[in-house]
Amino acid sequence: MTRGSTPQGADDRPAPRPTGLPLPTREGAEVELERTVPAAADRLHGRSRDRIRALDVLFEADAKQADVLDVLAERLRRTAAQTPLPERSRALVELYAPHAVDIDEDLSTHSRDWPLRRMPAVDRAILRLGAAEVLHGEEPGARGAIIGEYTKIAEVLSTDDSPRFVNGLLQRLVDVRGLLG
Question: Span 97-120, mean pLDDT?
Fold first, then answer.
């Protein structure tokens, strides 16, 4: 075989499989792209944004099956976001960490037919952090507002059914708070 020649049968390769996306033609025909709508994060308060950054840590720890405090330490050293992890986010993760086993048990007990492992990972993170804040937080008079914020976060970050599920389960935990601990 000489340099620059093609091996026998090289032109017989199957064509690449189509991806389902339209390809522009050589004449410059425009490709019509589907319009995407970003999540309405502008509806969230600064406190909610701090909660979302804390949720990111819980979500990452869950995905990696790592200790949440180890992931927190890594995020404090090196963040994936453009800004450092806010102090309030760190405090929320540290509020959750010592109660993680109890919170998971409480959520499993009161979620009625939805074991934690079957819940979407985002919902698990929202419920875990929300439960930590309503059950072990320092603001007992603000529980309703806190549940409302986690419901709003679920509305922005998760499925259509998630806000109602998050609201109901967190409210149930507050309602039986005296029985839990």
Answer: 91
